[in-house]
Design brief:
By secondary structure, the protein is α+β, with helices and mostly antiparallel strands. The chain has one domain: Nonspecific Lipid-transfer Protein, Chain A (2-Layer Sandwich), CATH 3.30.1050. Helix content is about 40%, strand content about 25%. Strands 3-2-1-4-5 form a five-stranded mixed β-sheet. The chain is globular. The chain starts with a helix and ends with a helix.
C-alpha cells in the first residue's frame, strides 16, 4: 500500500500549480524511507520528476526522511493521529529520522511538508 501511495505523489504535486510555484527554485533529490524500502524523489523546479525505488546503496539524496511503513500509512490518512500528522512530530516522537544536508529541507520546509502530505488529498476522495 505505502509504495502505491508514494507513487501517487508526482500526480498530486504536479497538478497543484501553487505547490509547484512554491518549489520553483528547488532542484534536488531526496530520499524517503518507508520501512525497509528507500525511494529517491527527484524534484526539478518544483515538479516531482520521478520517484524510484533505490536500487544501490550509493544512490542517495541531499537529505533523507525515514519511518516505519505503519507510521507513513497513518501520516497519509485524511486525518492522521497525534504524533503522525507532521514530519517534526514524527521525529520528536522517535517515529521518524531525518539525516543528511537539512538546509534545503529547512529553507523550503512548507513545500516538502506539503509534498509528502499530498496523498492525503487523494485519500479524501
Amino acid at each position: 500500500m505505502d509504495a502505491i501511495v508514494i507513487e501517487d505523489i508526482p500526480q498530486q504535486v504536479n497538478a497543484n500549480a501553487n505547490l509547484v510555484w512554491r518549489g520553483r527554485r528547488i532542484d534536488l533529490d531526496f530520499l524517503v524511507g518507508i520501512g525497509d524500502a528507500d525511494f529517491i524523489v527527484t524534484v526539478r523546479h518544483g515538479r516531482i520528476e520521478a520517484i524510484l525505488l533505490r536500487r544501490l546503496p550509493t544512490q542517495s539524496g541531499r537529505f533523507s526522511i525515514r519511518a516505519a511503513a505503519d507510521v507513513w500509512a497513518d501520516f497519509w490518512l485524511p486525518v492522521p493521529p497525534r504524533d503522525r500528522h507532521d514530519l517534526f512530530s514524527m521525529v520528536a516522537a522517535g517515529l521518524a529520522e531525518l539525516d543528511g544536508d537539512l538546509l534545503p529541507l529547512m529553507q523550503n520546509l512548507q513545500y516538502f511538508k506539503d509534498v509528502l502530505a499530498s496523498p492525503r488529498a487523494a485519500a479524501k476522495d
